[in-house]
């Protein structure tokens, strides 16, 4: 029986023993420091599937290991946790945390192999036995759905959606998912430098639409801890994705994530309208030109007629340039609505999209980032800023 094992340990000796006990199928990541949230740990791996067995080295920091184990039991009941440590000292607390077993640091290879295989069998059986709609530990209330809209392409929706999602993931680790609903030409994966194993067309066909545990195994994990549903690689595959499937997808995601951020195609096609049925806060984006503003005015009027324009909406003016011959007041007069946020033009945005490093991480002092953080403040309380890639906290 194949088994997917993830080990969190800095011991090369233990890594080798677990790898052998797992039949050569284990993945190892560092355990110092041990992440607080499951999604933060999973983001350290290069795999987009959940492990059958998570092995945590609890020999040096048992409280952190027990805390992470309890969160895995809550959020991912299809993964069984095995602790490496003192069984006498840990067994009682481990049982309360939902841990499947505790083995001593000097456990023999046969014991490790048997325990891992036993837990893997139990978890795989548990996944098969979980019926549709079983979600482990759903949120007490549906999550907020933030949908980024624009009547035309090139308005900067993807830049806003990706940076908004990254910023929310910073403030609410493990609680944010980003969905690329530009099903034909979406480039969220490119903007985040992701190579997804599964994409939107995989997610909407099968049990994942109604089974949150199955759904989470198909999500792509970003290094920030953000979960992502990437657009299909082929525009042909996108033709089979219906508005009804989008409706079911968002219905499931908002039971599992505090924030669901949706990037959309230009205009108001059926899948976008399906997303708007779930949207708590629309984010309307226009460019700093007459054509863009007139397009947004029509979009606002259409949404108002459909009853989809909530009072919680945010209107964003992107690529603002004082030399363009227009003012913010001109744009507001054209769209017949106020502008909540003005984002300046910046060459750093293009560099960010080309490198796949979100602007919040690549250029945290850029003027665009300052405005994006203002937008974040409308949805989540402030937290310490992200460290730029390649740098670590001392």
From TrEMBL:
GO molecular function, one term: ATP hydrolysis activity
Domain of life: Bacteria
Ranges in a coiled coil: none
Any one GO biological process: negative regulation of cell division
Gene3D superfamilies linked to this entry: 3.40.50.2300, P-loop containing nucleotide triphosphate hydrolases
Domain AAA as annotated: residue spans: 144-308
Protein name: Pilus assembly protein CpaE
């Amino acid at each position: 029986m194949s088994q997917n094992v993830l080990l969190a340990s800095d011991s090369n000796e233990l890594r080798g023993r677990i790898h052998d006990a797992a039949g050569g199928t284990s993945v190892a990541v560092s355990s110092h420091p041990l992440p607080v949230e499951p999604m933060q740990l999973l983001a350290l791996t290069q795999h987009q599937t959940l492990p059958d067995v998570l092995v945590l080295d609890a020999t040096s920091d048992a409280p952190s290991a027990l805390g992470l184990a309890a969160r895995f039991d809550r959020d991912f009941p299809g993964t069984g946790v095995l602790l490496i440590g003192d069984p006498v000292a840990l067994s009682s607390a481990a049982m309360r945390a939902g841990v499947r077993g505790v083995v001593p640091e000097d456990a023999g290879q046969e014991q490790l192999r048997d325990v891992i295989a036993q837990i893997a069998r139990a978890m795989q059986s548990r996944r098969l036995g979980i019926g549709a709609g079983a979600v482990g530990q759903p949120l007490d209330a549906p999550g907020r759905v933030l949908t980024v809209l624009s009547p035309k392409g090139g308005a900067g929706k993807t830049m806003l959606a990706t940076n908004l999602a990254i910023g929310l993931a910073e403030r609410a680790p493990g609680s944010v998912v980003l969905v690329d609903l530009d099903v034909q030409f979406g480039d969220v994966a490119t903007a985040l430098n992701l190579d997804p194993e599964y994409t939107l067309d995989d997610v909407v066909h099968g049990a994942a639409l109604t089974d949150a545990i199955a759904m989470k195994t198909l999500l792509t994990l970003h290094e920030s801890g953000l979960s992502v549903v990437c657009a299909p690689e082929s525009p042909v595959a996108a033709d089979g994705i219906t508005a009804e499937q989008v409706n079911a997808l968002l219905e499931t995601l908002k039971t599992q994530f505090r924030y669901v951020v949706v990037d959309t195609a230009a205009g108001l096609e059926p899948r976008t309208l399906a997303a708007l049925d779930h949207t708590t806060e629309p984010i309307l984006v226009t460019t700093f030109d007459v054509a863009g503003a007139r397009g947004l005015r029509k979009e606002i009027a259409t949404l108002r007629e459909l009853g989809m324009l909530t009072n919680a909406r945010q209107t964003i003016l992107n690529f603002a340039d004082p030399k363009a011959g227009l003012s913010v007041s001109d744009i507001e007069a054209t769209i017949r609505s106020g502008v909540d946020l003005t984002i300046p033009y910046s060459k750093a945005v293009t560099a960010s999209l080309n490198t796949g490093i979100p602007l919040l991480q690549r250029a945290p002092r850029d003027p665009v980032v300052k405005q994006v953080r203002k937008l974040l403040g409308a949805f989540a309380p402030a937290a310490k800023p992200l460290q730029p890639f390649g740098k670590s906290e001392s």
